Task: inverse folding
């Protein structure tokens, strides 16, 4: 995504120079192209700069290492019994499933993802490579659909997810959460991290109450932008305001 943004910006800059600053075209057409490619270049520069800053903040090789902090922070809430099974919905590169498996060597984890073209760098072979690199043998990966999990009710001892559901086009993301919780066993734990803003999810406080009314032993919605995973300022410029961790026990 960073490379694409930078390349597109370079293309707009080249077109701006060719058609806006030289004599290749003239008159009204030159003015129009000058403005179009200038705006494209400026927007591209802004988007590219934002993506580069995001990459540096989340990269495991950078100083901030926000991804590591989030992944390990979620995994801390996951404890499985001997022989237990956990599910990571929208596993991406496999980082969260691997982190949870490392903390629970007596159990196993399954990571599922659709690995769509918009995240082409994430795929099943990458997940398997990462698990091998971390010397984790108790995690497997497969294709799956978060909107309709291919698992029976109450078959996992833990379910986790990180920044997945807000990417799914739907008018009812609370239903996606319920679909994930459907496969959780009675007594199982869940740790779901996402942008739980009202515009995306509606009233999450009411959802927490709903789960409690359904008989869940424990349900908490923890703001992760108040220093837990990031600061309010970071969440604002990263467009992650509303990020929170939904944890509990069924």
Result:
């Amino acid at each position: 995504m960073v490379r694409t943004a930078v390349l597109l910006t370079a293309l707009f800059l080249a077109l701006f120079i060719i058609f806006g600053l030289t004599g290749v075209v003239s008159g009204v057409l030159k003015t129009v192209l000058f403005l179009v490619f200038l705006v494209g270049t400026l927007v591209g520069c802004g988007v590219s700069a934002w993506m580069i800053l995001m990459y540096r903040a989340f990269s495991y090789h950078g100083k901030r290492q926000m991804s590591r902090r989030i992944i390990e922070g979620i995994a801390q809430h996951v404890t499985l019994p001997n022989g237990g099974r956990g599910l990571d919905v929208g596993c991406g590169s496999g980082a969260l499933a691997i982190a949870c498996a490392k903390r629970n060597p007596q159990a196993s984890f399954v990571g599922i993802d659709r690995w769509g073209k918009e995240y082409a760098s994430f795929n099943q072979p990458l997940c398997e490579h990462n698990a091998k690199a971390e010397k984790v043998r108790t995690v497997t990966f497969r294709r799956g659909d978060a909107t309709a999990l291919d698992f029976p009710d109450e078959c996992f001892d833990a379910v986790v997810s990180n920044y997945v559901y807000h990417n799914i086009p739907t008018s009812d993301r609370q239903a996606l959460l319920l679909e994930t919780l459907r496969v959780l066993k009675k007594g199982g734990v869940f740790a779901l991290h996402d942008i739980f803003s009202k515009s995306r999810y509606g009233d999450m406080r009411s959802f927490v109450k709903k789960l409690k009314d359904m008989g869940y032993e424990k349900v908490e919605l923890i703001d992760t932008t108040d220093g837990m995973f990031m600061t309010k300022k970071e969440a604002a410029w990263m467009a992650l305001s509303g990020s929170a961790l939904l944890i509990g026990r069924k």
